[in-house]
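Objective 1.3, modelling of assemblies. Example input:
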Amino acid sequence: MDVLASLLQGFATALTPMNLMWCLLGTTLGTAIGILPGIGPALTIALLLPITAKLDPTGAFIMFAGLYYGAMYGSSTTSILLNTPGESGSIITAVEGNVMAKNGRGAAALATAAIGSFVAGTLGTIAITFLAPLFVKLALLFGPAEYFALMVLAFTTVSALLGSSLPRGLTSLLLGLAIGLVGTDVLTGQPRLTFDILSLLRGIDIVVVAVGLFAVGEALYMASRPDMRAGEIVPIRGSIFMTADEWRRSWKPWLRGTALGFPFGALPAGGTEIPTFLSYFLEKRMSKKPEEFGKGAIEGVAGPEAANNAAVAGVLVPLLTLGLPTSATAAILLAAFEQYNLKPGPLLFSSSSTLVWGLIASLYIGNVMLLILNLPLAGLWVRLLSIPQPLLYGGILLFSTLGVYSLNNSTFDLVLLFLVGILGFLMRRYDFPVAPCIIGLILGRLAEAQFRRALTISQGDASVFFTHPLSLALLIIAALVFVGPLFYRWRAAKLQSVKAAG
Amino acid sequence: MNRRTLIASAVALLLAGGLSLNLASTPALALDELRIIAPAAPGGGWDQTARAMQEAVQSGGAVKAVTVENVPGAGGTVGLAQLAGQEQGKDNVLMVNGLVMVGAILTNKSAVTLENTTPIARLTGEYEVIVVPGSSELKTLADLVAKLKADPGAVAWGGGSAGGTDHILAGLVAKASGADVSKLNYVPFSGGGEALAAVMGGHVVAGISGYSEWEGQIKSGELRALGISAPERVAGIDIPTLKEQGVDVELANWRAIVAPPGLTDEQKQALLATVDAAVKSDSWKKVLAAKNWTDLYLPGDDFTKLVAAENVRVTEILKGIGLVQ
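Predicted structure (tokens):
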């Protein structure tokens, strides 16, 4: 079907009153959690999963996508006014944005962030619209061998990028892999690591692990710290209508940020953080007045804020067409698809075209809603930050418990939830990133199944991974990604020693 | 969705009110409430069957409140364990099950089997199709059988979970063709179109699934259906049966309803009467038509015999495949 015809169909779906409501709910909630530090889209969607299990999937995904976009809008507000990023994708925004706010140009910083997010979000959505169908054609060429190679590529990048310390990232990843092994083996139907516990036969639910690690773990961690509030909110000053000069200085960074963010989002483990850093340094290098950076340069807000929104759009392309999660939130979204027994992949576009195109159309609508929600109402949103943390996290704990129980009406799941929650707390306390665990849990299951399927089809001949051209290409890229940084570091060290010797 | 439920319950109430006069003359069923266990997550076939049964029983008005309880996990054996355990002897509980559970009990080495239930009736079923990609060199079932006989390992079958209906059919076809069942090369995929993508992309040689799931692709020519596992041609489906092509296999992925163990004969007859009335209701017939389910209603002792026969057949084939020792 023609892309534009499909998109129009999608708008027909997205513009129904119910779906508009889901979109509004998602974007509003997204903005709110974006503003609140520590509560991210992955946590929120994980919390909402059990509650939405009985909803129509189209409505639920429209809400989730709106929430994901909204979190990126909202997080800039906290970065600018509180000098604390609402989400990790807005870390760099705080550098220039908070200085601007202190210099009385807070409103302009908020405006360039919101409009930049809108521009990037909309351009990114246009890119999804036209790229996704192309990806779908490509994806049918993917058999088990190719999928396994793709998972290998995802693995090489995941653990290295998601934490500050490699051993900790790997530990978390391996933990996820181990949890993923529990349950009935997909290929032979035999129980593994179930310790004769009947409830473990169906495996450990990804939702339970996600809610446990993100929500319960985070709540316990917050409760363990006596002093939870820090930082000073800078009141918004200045006009939200940017001056001609500010527009002139903003539009190029927006476009460059979009161009950086989208492909990074689509790459395995590219995520939202790296493109924002790259965008910041790119703007600094391209600026005619690099000395202004660090003193409130508007380009340093405009570029990264566009980049993080474009990255979110990019994340959706491999998620929808290949079923490949490239960020923690995408991993949770994949769990959401599983919950509805939907399999993201090339056939999703034909078997659930209403859902997919309704979702894509809703992203256009969501962006408009978010611009309206964020620009004039920024002052209102900031008040969220005055909610006492104990109430906030108490509520989260309550919702996680209720939600997980309602999933399967199983008390066993509740016990599991709190065990995982304690694990999550310990990981947070001792600085182990939790995202690789979730990604390991999801990718590990997939990678193992695809690996063994490929070998079953080839009757045990392992050369399939190297004789299929696509699979070989992916494995080579994975090897380069793995070896590249090591080589680079080695060369840099050698150059240093040569210099030192000279 | 809420509104729909509201209307549905309003209609049910009206019907109940209208029918109460008639009911006075028929023997009253001493059931205030009935719980139907769907041993699977919401949305799947067993859940849909349980909910259709819920509406059908409710529409008859014989039971005041009918609820559905989802107890998912392990091919339904988690639900089965609950039925045979804590629900034992209760005459107001039913559970949906099916052919898949027969296999799951064996592969999971479940301590509880279908013998620990009181069989009530088989309700519906669906026949399976064997397909190849539209571009495949295999034109007929005979081509596939020849390839299978020559080298069973060379035919990679794509289908649903290990030990499930698709896997069982692959084993039965290999056996009926005289191929070595222990060399069956079956590749299980998890649900939701993954197997379909593998067949369409030509990554496996042949695919097996319930007919309705792949109907669209078969009609569009992307998949070529080689045979259907029905005993005779199914009206409206232009696919030859396996039997008429010389492969003596028929298999229905049936769904049924059972009660807890430890019931008296009277209690069993009362439940049977409730289900019988529900199956004859308009509500049930509408669901069958809407969901394209084949009516395979088989109550009482005949169903008990069927379960025993299927158990023998499935055990034999899963042992042949090597999934069960």
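Residues 1-141+243-386 of chain A form one domain.
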